[in-house]
Amino acid sequence: MKVNHALALALAAVLPACMPSHRAAPALTAPSPIPEAAPLDPQTSARVAAEVAAIFAALPPEPAPADAVETEVSWDIDVASYDTHDRVAHYLRLFQGGSRDYLESRLRRGTRYDAMIRAKLRASDLPEDLAYLPFVESGYDPNAYSRAAAVGMWQFMATTARAVGLRVDWWVDERRDPVRSTDAATRYLRDLRRQLGSVYLAVAAYNGGSGRISRGLAKYADDLDGTTGDDLFFALAETGHLRRETREYVPQLIAVAMLAKEPARYGLEVGTVEPFAYDSATVPAATPLAAVAAAGNTTVDAIRDLNPHFLRGLTPPGAASQVRVPVGAGAGFAARFAALPEKDRRGVTRVSTTKGQTMASIARAHDLAERRLAWYNPTVRRAKPSGRLVSGQTILVPSAAVVRAAVDVPDPSIERYGSSTKPATRTHTVRAGESLSVIGRRYGTSVTQLKKANGLQSDRIKPGQRLVVPAQSTSDRGAD
Fold first, then answer.
1. Which pLDDT tens digit goes with each residue over 210-264?
2. Element (H, E) at 469
3. What is d(CA 364, CA 376) in angstroms, rounded to the nearest whole number?
4. Does the 86-142+177-266 domain belong in CATH 1.10.1660?
5. Is the pTM of the predicted complex or chain greater than 0.90?
6. Is 402 helix (H, G, I), strand (E, B) or coil?
7. Cα–Cα dist 433/461, whole Å
């Protein structure tokens, strides 16, 4: 770079003042005097100043400190297109207000499963931010259940769970298993996305059933013409075809994803817990969870926490099972298990019924409550009309340790808790301005069903009129 004489003089005058001072070494010889520069005229001074500025502007900028680098938040589901949607905004306000404690505590619980869920979503070529879906479903609770008999972190109905490969029976309910249920959920979501062509339509179908989504897309095809991708969900929601729960489902997911990834922006505090990690071991059929805990150097509560799918305090009869034990306990587990007393490794004693016995009499003989004995004998046969046990059948009598580790849950085969052969009904008092279609959308039913339940020949209703609202006989998911 070529610098003229005036610029050199200016730099000579300016730079010494900018340099740090140091104690000078003793001079060996006297320095030659520097001639004093003549003062610059104003025009030259301005030109010099501009050239100095240009020199410093050409210098590369200093790198920012490492702690000053901001990481841009991003999502792999479409949040940006819908972050101002009125229902998304509603849930943002709700979770920052009255539901803040719930949000923070459930997101904290979710950190235990986050890495595992994301890895399985990634392996299924699904967006990793669908890891927030179990928040909407259950608050990340492996033991959650709804009045519609949906169970587990991913809230599967029994029939749907079996259809996607989960074991659901009297002994084992893999809907409660965080790992197996996540495997099933990712397979199900992957298939729904392939079928419907959109992540948000797949999410809606996960909640409301793929049949309802497909029928809605066909029914409103003309209205939806030109709408593509995830916009289709929001357009379909506007038609009123979807049940309210399904309409709200995707906005909740978007709001939770926004809050979870930027908690500080919204004034939230979300802590973390230890990730879900474990070693595995194999044990014989009908092994008490107490024996697993003893061989795993831990507590029964810790084993139940890692294995919530074992319902009756023992591994299922009939075949060996894999169990989860704390990290590090897998090494040497087999030897420690074999060293336990035989009575501690035996979960049940088998007795053969004799004439005249009842479940109550056998329970009394073994110091058990009849109801708890029934947990281990779901298919017991009774004679008619006396109700006494049929002679010669085997009754499983659990040990005290097994009963203490069992959980009291409804029969997993039940599809709706508290249901009877006739679905329950509700009543609604018509308000001014309401129509059958408005009422139907509110309760997730149709105009036809309302008219049939109330014996109506036309769509005409009036304020103050009481209508019977038929209840759905199955939950949204799997009701196709």
1. 999 999 999 999 999 999 999 999 999 999 999 999 999 999 999 999 999 999 9
2. strand 466-470
3. 15
4. no
5. no
6. helix
7. 10
Angle between helices 199-208 and 210-219 (to 10 degrees): 120
Residue 305 to residue 143: CA distance in whole angstroms: 10
Q: What radius of gyration, in Å, describes the C-alpha atoms of the chain?
A: 35
Q: How far apart are CA 113 and CA 177, in angstroms?
A: 11
Instruction: Give the count of beta carbons closer than 10 Å to the beta carbon of residue 66.
Output: 6
Backbone torsions φ then ψ of 60, nearest 5 degrees: -65, 145
For residue 410 the two structure tokens come to: 């409804």
**CA–CA gap between residue 422 and residue 332 (Å, rounded):** 55
Angle in degrees, CA 268, 140, 132, rounded to 5: 65
Write the class of the CATH domain 279-405: alpha beta
pLDDT per position as a tens digit, 154-200 = 999 999 999 999 999 999 999 999 999 999 999 999 999 999 999 99
Q: Evaluate whether 86-142+177-266 and 279-405 have a shared fold.
A: no
As a whole number of angstroms, the distance between CA 170 and CA 180 comes to 17
Mean pLDDT of 111-121: 98
Query: If you count them, how many residues does the chain have?
Result: 480
Whether 76 contacts 129, CB under 8 Å: yes
Q: Which residues contact 400 (CB under 8 A, 6 or more apart)?
A: none
Sign of dihedral through CA atoms 275, 280, 285, 290?
negative
- The domain at 425-470 falls in which architecture? Roll (3.10)
- Sign of the four-CA dihedral 335, 336, 339, 340: negative
Sign, CA torsion 137/305/163/470? negative
Give the start-to-end residue ranges of the domains of the chain.
Answer: 1-19+36-69, 86-142+177-266, 279-405, 425-470
Quick check: 475 and 146 in contact, CB under 8 A?
A: yes
* Chain-centre distance for alpha carbon 435: 37
Closest-CA residue to 184 (of 110, 120, 115): 120
Q: Nearest-CA neighbor of 454 among 435, 467, 473, 441?
A: 467
Closest CA to 131 of 62, 203, 56: 203
pLDDT in tens, 313-325: 999 998 999 999 9
11/144 Cα distance (integer angstroms): 75
What single string gives the DSSP state of each residue in 267-311?
Answer: T-----------EEEEE-TT-BHHHHHHHTTS-HHHHHHH-TTB-
